[in-house]
Design goal:
Structural class: mainly alpha
Strand content: under 5%
Number of strands: 0
Helix content: 55-70%
Largest sheet: none
Shape: elongated
Radius of gyration: 20 Å
Mean pLDDT: 89
Amino acid sequence: MRTAGSRVSYKHFQLDNAKIRLAQNILCTKAETETIERALGAVVDGHRRSRLAAQAHEPFLKSGIEFKDVYGKLA
């Protein structure tokens, strides 16, 4: 999941094998490198989505709107 213009660099890490195997099962990957690449991609994409959602909601939240709990469940 490399982006345009990204470079590959070789790193040496000591990682928990159980976590890698669990991530491989979750991501349906076979190779450890692919698993780590996809996991990092998921983190970056998740952060990007969260940032965009916050930006989209900012005008709504700054509008001063008041919420009313019609069901009586919010504190």
